[in-house]
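Q: What would this chain look like folded?
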Amino acid sequence: MNPEEAARASTDAVSYLPAGFMLAGSTYKRGGELGFDGVDFYTAGRGGALGDVDGMVVAAAFVFFNPDSIVAAWERTRPLMSRRETAEAFLGCLYTWAHRHLPDEVDYARLAELLGRVNDAASPSCAPLFAGWKAMPESSDTKELALQRMNVLRELRGAVHGASVLAAGLEPLEAVIIKTPFMAEVFGWAEPYPDVEAHHDKWEQAEMSTNRILARAYSVLDASELSQLVDLAGTAHKGVS
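A: My prediction, written as C-alpha cells:
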C-alpha cells in the first residue's frame, strides 16, 4: 500500500469516527449543561482551539459552513466560557464518547502512535484547525488518544479538501450539496440550493487532489505501517456501537 492509497482507504474512518462524538446526543447534552444552545457548542468547541479570535476567522477555518451562521454562533457563545475552556470541554466529550462507543478489540496504542507520526509529518499550511487541535494537551489513555489524534487528522483532511474544492472551481456550498446535501441546513445554508448536476467531476477531482496532498504526510510510514493504520482505523470504525 502506498501513501495515497492509504489516505484514500482511511477516508471513512478519519472522516466519520470523530464526527461520531460531535453528533452524539451526549455531546449536545453536555453543551446544554454548560449553557450552550443547540449546535452552538459545536461551533464554540471546535473553533475554540483557535483561541479568542474574530468570528470571521472561525468561519474561514470551517470552510463549508455559511459564514454568517458561524459568526453569529461564535458571538452568541462569547460570554459563556473562555475559548480554551470550551475547546477542552468539547474534547472531554470526545473522550467520553470514545469509551462508550469504540470497540475494545483494537490496539489503540499502536493506532495512536501511527496517527501521531502522520500528524507530526504534516504541514500546517492552510490548516488552522489542524494546528489548533494538534496543540491541545493529549490524553494518556490510549483509546482517548487514538480518537483525539484521529480528530486532528480529520481537521487536516478537512482543510486540504477545502482548498482542493476551491482549486477545482467549486463553491463550498456546491461541494456540500454534492457530497452531503442533507447537511446543508445544518451547515447554515438556506434554500434555494444551487444545481450541481454538472459539477460532480469537479468534486471527484477535488477528492483525488485531497488524497494526493495528504499522501505527503502519510509517506512518513512504510508500506506495512500504512496497511496497519488503515486496518486499525477501519476496525475501530466498523466496531462502533
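Residues 3-238 form one domain.
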